[in-house]
């Protein structure tokens, strides 16, 4: 480093620059001032922090400029980093000089309360708030820790296509599009392609956008969401569950260890999250779960029905960590799941249900290996056999038991962040009736 040359830093790096004079580029989120001192709340993308302008220490112009700064003005600030035990970050900036980079006038999101529709209409600006910043940091950490875990476990990332001709999760929720003269869909899940890749490379994963034209307007549903999918050759049902619980515990551990400030901003109780790192996660069969519900006054559900969110919430509330509900009825699950020989009405599948009402975060299963069974299912589920010929091929040439699962990124983010609604977990969520901004 050149002597005498001032360093431009981000506020996250403040600990390495105590008592040094630095340059920080930031936006003004708020300010208050008296005759002698101005407190600027700044955001530089790495953190939210306070800058203090003392009238006696700066030029008259600088103090006047500081007092007149509007919300969201961008600034270049020169100042000295000092420890500040009162702030969450632990550091503040004692200002020497300020230069305006870009002016801001009448910023629509003010510190007062705004309604959800207003905020969603201004999502492109709402992202600047400290809560949104915290949620995106947790999302980023889950993505980072996912790649870390998958690489540690020796999986290869395989990217399935987004434009497809198959419908792994049923035909009712497909987004149709034209593929030149052919009909095509936006991918609901990369699973079928991952199965082909698992037969080539053994252990594979994918992480990308998926689309569901679901007419659901709930706190758990997005139209476009990111799914992390895994497919493991030679792995049967129970080993699949063990992989999932180790993966989810790894995500929780890393969010706790690397997102302390974000969790604090969100008022997320870390002791509660610690509980979710404890393995194993309990397994409860679908059949026992129905009995549990019926024994506890839920008479709106019987064997064969799918769970609604009140049911999932109640079942999960019996435990202190995520659970697996295993072996659902074949009739309410997709065509590719392997039959459970111990109760052939059911399949070898599991949904991981998160605690605290967050519901299903993972859906997975062991897959059908036998050619005839799969062929019959494709017809029985009214799927177009010609679109699945390649998928059936996988059962002809050295087929092996294999299993996999998909984790919904945004559901995991909502759960670990402890926020009410999934819409805040995506930077620009696609919701029923909303594609703006
Ligand atoms: O349970 P799903 O539909 O499973 C599959 O798509 C399998 N093919 C995955 C596999 O085995 N490779 O979806 C998996 C997860 C759900 O558990 C949920 O977390 C999330 O994806 N998900 C959604 N997230 C947000 N909005 C939606 N509309 C979602 N639908 C599913
Ligand atoms: Mg599911």
Automatic annotation (TrEMBL):
Gene source species: Abiotrophia defectiva ATCC 49176
Q: What HAMAP family does this protein's entry cite? A: Asn_tRNA_synth (MF_00534)
Q: Where is the Aminoacyl-transfer RNA synthetases class-II family profile domain?
A: 138-437
Name the catalysed reactions.
tRNA(Asn) + L-asparagine + ATP = L-asparaginyl-tRNA(Asn) + AMP + diphosphate + H(+)
Superkingdom of the organism of origin: Bacteria
The entry's protein name is: Asparagine--tRNA ligase
UniProt lists the family membership as follows: Belongs to the class-II aminoacyl-tRNA synthetase family.
The gene it comes from is asnS
Ubl conjugation as UniProt keyword:
no
For this protein, the Enzyme Commission number is 6.1.1.22
């Amino acid at each position: 480093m050149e002597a005498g040359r001032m360093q431009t830093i981000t506020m996250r790096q403040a600990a390495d620059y105590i008592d040094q004079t630095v340059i920080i580029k930031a936006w003004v989120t708020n300010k208050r001032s008296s005759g002698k001192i101005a407190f600027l709340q700044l955001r530089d993308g790495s953190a939210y922090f306070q800058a203090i302008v003392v009238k006696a220490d700066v030029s008259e112009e600088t103090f006047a400029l500081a007092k007149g700064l509007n919300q969201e003005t961008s600034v270049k600030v020169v100042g000295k980093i000092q420890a500040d035990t009162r702030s969450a970050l632990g550091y503040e900036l004692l200002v020497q000089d300020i230069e305006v980079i870009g002016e801001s006038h009448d910023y629509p999101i003010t510190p007062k309360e705004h309604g959800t529709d207003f905020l969603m209409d201004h999502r492109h600006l709402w992202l600047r708030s400290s809560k949104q910043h915290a949620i995106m940091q947790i999302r980023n950490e889950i993505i980072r820790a996912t790649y870390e875990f998958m690489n540690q476990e020796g999986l290869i990332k395989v990217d399935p296509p987004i434009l497809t001709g198959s419908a792994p999760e049923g035909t009712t929720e497909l987004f149709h599009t034209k593929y030149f003269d052919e009909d095509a869909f936006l991918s609901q899940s990369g699973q079928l392609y991952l199965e082909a890749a698992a037969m080539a490379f053994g252990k594979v994963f994918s992480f990308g956008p998926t689309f569901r034209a679901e007419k659901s307007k709930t706190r758990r549903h997005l139209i476009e969401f990111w799914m992390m999918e895994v497919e493991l050759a030679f792995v049967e049902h129970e080993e699949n569950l063990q992989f999932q619980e180790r993966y989810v515990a790894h995500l929780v551990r890393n969010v706790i260890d690397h997102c302390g400030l974000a969790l604090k901003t969100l008022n997320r109780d870390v002791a509660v999250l610690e509980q979710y790192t404890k393995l194993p996660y309990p397994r409860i069969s679908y059949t026992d779960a129905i009995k549990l519900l019926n024994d506890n006054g839920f008479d709106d559900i019987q064997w064969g029905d799918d769970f609604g969110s009140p049911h999932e919430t109640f079942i999960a509330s019996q435990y202190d960590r995520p659970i697996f509900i295993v072996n659902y009825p074949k009739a309410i699950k997709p065509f590719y799941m392997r039959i459970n020989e111990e109760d052939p009405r059911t399949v070898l599948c599991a949904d991981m249900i998160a605690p605290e009402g967050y519901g299903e975060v993972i859906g997975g299963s062991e897959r059908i290996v036998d050619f005839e069974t799969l062929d019959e299912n494709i017809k029985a589920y009214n799927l177009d056999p010609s679109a699945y010929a390649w998928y059936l091929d996988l059962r002809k040439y050295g087929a092996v038991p294999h299993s996999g699962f998909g984790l919904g990124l945004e559901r995991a983010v909502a759960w670990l962040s402890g926020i009410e609604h999934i819409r805040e977990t995506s930077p620009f969520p696609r919701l029923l009736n909303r594609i703006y901004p």
